[in-house]
Amino acid sequence: MLIGISCAWVDVFFQCVQIAEKPKRAHDQTRVAIALSQLGKGFESHNYTKQIVEFWKRICDAAEVLLPRYTEEGNAFIGEGLIWESKEEDLPDIEAKRIARYLYFVQGN
């Protein structure tokens, strides 16, 4: 997944990368980084994988704590969905080093 934000002085991209073969893929070896380099764009990249792991752990913990309240409201599916998504999809992939998240600051237009 790639999310881009543009403004006059800098473009910012987040990329969630599914890593198939290289578990510790460097920031400058992602498709976005390679494309930016080929376009002659200068950029800074930052690894936010640790933060996304912490985010999904907090989401899961909060959903587990709030599950009884979701259930009382008749919205148990919300809490259950968040718990399932974090435990079954995102955290296993991130912790197995199959997904990484990078932030790119692109210089110039």
How would you summarize the topology of this molecule?
Elements (H helix, E strand, L loop, with lengths): L1 E5 L3 E9 L12 H8 L4 E5 L1 H24 L3 H20 L3 E9 L2
Antiparallel strand pairs: 1-2, 2-4, 3-4
Helix pairs in contact: 2-3
Structure, explained:
The chain has one domain (2-107). 48% of the residues lie in helices and 26% in strands. It is built from 3 helices and 4 strands. The protein has a 4-stranded antiparallel beta sheet with strand order 1-2-4-3. The protein is elongated, with a radius of gyration of 17 Å. The relative contact order is 0.25.
**SS content category:** alpha+beta
Tell me the number of strands: 4
Spatial ordering of strands, largest sheet: 1-2-4-3
Low-confidence stretches: 1-13
Strand content: 25-35%
Largest β sheet strand count, sense and barrel closure: 4 strands, antiparallel
* Tally of individual helices: 3
How do the SSEs run, as a string of H and E? EEHEHHE
- For the termini, the CA-CA separation is 22 Å
The domain count comes to: 1
Which whole number gives the mean pLDDT? 77
Assembly annotation: single chain
The helix content, as a percent range, equals 40-55%
What is the global morphology? Answer: elongated
Whole-angstrom Rg: 17 Å
